[in-house]
Specification:
Helix content: over 70%
Radius of gyration: 17 Å
Distance between the termini: 31 Å
Largest sheet: none
Oligomer: single chain
Strand content: under 5%
Structural class: mainly alpha
Number of strands: 0
Shape: globular
């Protein structure tokens, strides 16, 4: 809901970088706080808030960028964006399934390390590939 005003004020890159770093921060939080004893409110819930923030901040600029394409390219841009999201989801689930049986303690430690790495890698890629403004 607030993605439009944030994008107007900070551009597309800053919210997306903040969102991907929030995803990495959520993984780090879970690695530090989730143990074998169940604690939803103190362990999982704060990380889930960060993941929701991450999704809202990181996805909105992608959809906005697809909306700026010329009319003859808008359909292709939208298709590529949605296909990329679907492939990312499938690869993410496959990694989770592949890594979880080998994890110790909570069973998700390896998956959270992958999540943290993916968030940091995405933020780095966004910063490296951001459009340069000409003076």
């Amino acid at each position: 809901m607030n993605a439009g005003p944030l994008q107007s004020r900070f551009g597309r890159t800053a919210p997306a970088v903040t969102g991907t770093l929030a995803m990495a921060l959520a993984a780090g939080y879970w690695l530090a706080t989730v143990h074998t004893t169940p604690d939803y409110w103190g362990g999982m819930f704060p990380g889930l808030i960060l993941v929701g923030l991450a999704g809202g901040l990181a996805q909105a600029p992608l959809f906005a960028a697809a909306g700026t394409l010329a009319p003859e390219r808008a359909t292709t841009g939208s298709a590529v964006l949605n296909m990329s999201r679907q492939i990312g989801s499938a690869v993410g689930v496959a990694l989770l399934v592949a890594l979880t049986p080998h994890a110790t303690t909570t069973g998700f430690d390896h998956a959270w390390w992958v999540q943290a790495g993916a968030g940091i890698a995405a933020a780095t890629a966004l910063l490296a590939l951001r459009p340069r403004r000409t003076p």
